[in-house]
Amino acid sequence: MTDISALKAALGDIRTEDNPAIVKQKSRDFFWYSPVLKRELDAVTGDLIVTPKSEAEVIQVLKACYAQGVPVTPRGSGTGNYGQAMPLSGGVVLNLAEMNAIKSIAPGRVVTEPGAVLAHIDRETRKTGQELRLHPSTYNTASLAGFIAGGSGGVGSINWGGLRDLGNVLRLRIVTMEEEPRVLELGGWDLHKVMHAYGTNGIITEVEVPLDVAYDWVDVVVGFDDYMRAVRFANLLANSDGLLFKEIATVAAPVPHDYFLRHQKFLKKTDSVVLLMVAPHAIDPFLALAAREKAEIRYRSDTASEAEKKGLPPVYELTWNHTTLRGLRVDPSITYLQVLYPFPDHVEKVGRMTEIFGDEVPGHLEFIRFDGNVACTGLPIVRYTSDERLDEIIAIHEDNGCPIFNPHRYTLEEGGMKQTNEVQLAFKREADPKGLLNPGKMVAWENPDFDWESNKVFLFPGLRASS
Amino acid sequence: MTDISALKAALGDIRTEDNPAIVKQKSRDFFWYSPVLKRELDAVTGDLIVTPKSEAEVIQVLKACYAQGVPVTPRGSGTGNYGQAMPLSGGVVLNLAEMNAIKSIAPGRVVTEPGAVLAHIDRETRKTGQELRLHPSTYNTASLAGFIAGGSGGVGSINWGGLRDLGNVLRLRIVTMEEEPRVLELGGWDLHKVMHAYGTNGIITEVEVPLDVAYDWVDVVVGFDDYMRAVRFANLLANSDGLLFKEIATVAAPVPHDYFLRHQKFLKKTDSVVLLMVAPHAIDPFLALAAREKAEIRYRSDTASEAEKKGLPPVYELTWNHTTLRGLRVDPSITYLQVLYPFPDHVEKVGRMTEIFGDEVPGHLEFIRFDGNVACTGLPIVRYTSDERLDEIIAIHEDNGCPIFNPHRYTLEEGGMKQTNEVQLAFKREADPKGLLNPGKMVAWENPDFDWESNKVFLFPGLRASS
């Protein structure tokens, strides 16, 4: 158990908060998307929220926690879905939200502190005609370092691929968890040591990412009476090299009508939709293609009246994890999966899954670039009945060549490639020798002998809440 | 034979030129790249150069020529390679170079007159942080409408595909060749009626094209001791979604050392090269990838000294048709081909051609997006010996699944898909009922019964020079 008063003494003037209600609130993220994680993690809480204002304060916190053996779990805005920012063994929640300065903007580049919120960064970079390449649907609340530490891609991935792709993050500055914390600058391949590592092997204190040109993206919703027609149209758009989109998604009926309540007035119950962000100068050629394909435009923001637009969320807030979020607000019993439909037969694979599962797993695709080709990743809604059926649905996907990134697991490996990431593990040995950073999230660290072939779920013995 | 004095009378104040030496000079393009076209077209000349200053003057010229039955062949800057702008039946060469105004620049769009030179357009659009998506290697001299009427793609095609792709041209304004010429605005699918039609079915008087973000592209030359290593590296770069290039080309040894004379000091005789334009913010991640692949950087413009850069052409002037041009300056006996290596086995196909031909056909690839995938088009040098061997080389390519767009033919079909373009033909019937626009370039018009299966070369009976 953490000795709060000793720790607070060592932290001096650094802002802390130990009111249990607030600590618990700041110890949570969107883990409750998953009925599995909701059960497992609901009681998780830290002991102390610590809110540094500078890298120097981060160093001071890590040094004090190292000395006292206190776990430290970093947190941006807490918009993750897998308990990434939840302190499984208690200790300090390192709230980086106040380190949110935008340090410099140049052609093609921005440098920020870790807690800078994506939409806020873009408000500044747009003054130079630029915006972030990639953002999750939680654009208005998520922090940049949180996105890099816990996300994989999002809006913009149709043009740039994922965060993992070389070039989508330029530089990270991190602080290690050692007796004398070191400050390291990482670029090139070294970035993979700490990207999508949930903060298990270093605390990000500065980020440099590339910028893209900013446009006044036009939100478009296209309706189809058949889901696979929507999928094929989306695939056609994604492969149309002369058209510029920032987002291409599909959602199967009846999800759009039933869950996109503010857009419901534009939709039929039977509508499967394609959700788009279109560059203004691509609208006319896009409409030429839509007309040829007999695609019916249900909504477009560039011609909608002020009355029609009133209260509507942007289209990106219907996509990625927001699709499920809107569903959960209407029907808390649903959940979701994360599926990759690999190129080149991604459309056929989607068709097969649609046939097998029907309305038990209504389709939701996000079109992305993947190693140079257009592929799609899916975040289908699942009408959840039991853990056993959920596992069965996962197994059927995998048996059909559609790998699952399981969103019902809180560890890096189980939500990812189901194998040890040797680069991240090796770096954790260097940067966090006592294993105090975000404990329980890296199976390879906690249980090097874990048998990935066994298909067992990893149970973190340090999970304080479950004891 | 054109009655020059009657025509000049009908043209009033519109600028004309009938000095035979100047007329002949303005009746030529880069047809002499091809030993075949050089023989066939060397004597071609018009009767009169007419230089309109406005759309109203274009209308007046077309009306007068229609009335007198005079052929009209439009010309931008004469940078084509297939006799596109050469008046096979004499008559008027319509020089559009003086109609070169840039009419408006907006986010993502520019509107210009037809004769505006690409580099000049970009000098203006760069003031707004933007530049053209696509340009040929003749960027500094080619006109925008000439590029659209006679080109297919170029620098930038790695990101945007070709001119044919919906969205890469937004609008064309054209004048028809009728008793009362009409002015038409074309967009969407209608653009294909006149794009890449060599001006055979309308005279372009205004162009609207999309713009991309402008960067200070870094010229990079990478050297390899083996051509296929260069090809695989280029293919890897082209498929790296997070890296931003404007140009990716490969050229096989000994062409770079022997023909790129100003860059020779950086190159070994054995160097096969990858030629790149890299976004400044992609340089560091690019170098990380290059290091992993053991690629040796021979030249990069961002770190070269002023002395090293002195007199060097930009890298794009080593690519596309400039590769051959530089070769021709050193060895006038060479020529070239235009090959498509289709996705997904483009690299294997390049390997096979390299094996078969060796130094008889030194490789030159341009990586492009093609229907959503990365593919490559080739402009290999050919060490020309005879027309028969040239035809044989073409046949071997086609037998191996590598379609040839024959640059040794002056007709649209023979240089293209070897079949009638029904859309362009139908539009010619409407827009040029007398067949006076650029005669001899559309086989389907001149000889509707031409047998495409026969493998015969089309001989234009109206070719005045050969009579």
Automatic annotation (TrEMBL), chains A, B:
Keyword Transport carried by entry: no
Domain FAD-binding PCMH-type stretches: 41-214
Signal peptide: none
One Pfam family of this chain: FAD_binding_4
Keyword Flavoprotein assigned: yes
GO-annotated molecular function: D-lactate dehydrogenase (cytochrome) activity; D-lactate dehydrogenase (NAD+) activity; FAD binding
GO biological process: lactate catabolic process
Keywords: FAD, Flavoprotein
PANTHER family: D-2-HYDROXYGLUTARATE DEHYDROGENASE, D-LACTATE DEHYDROGENASE
Protein known as: FAD/FMN-containing dehydrogenase
Organism, as annotated: Bauldia litoralis
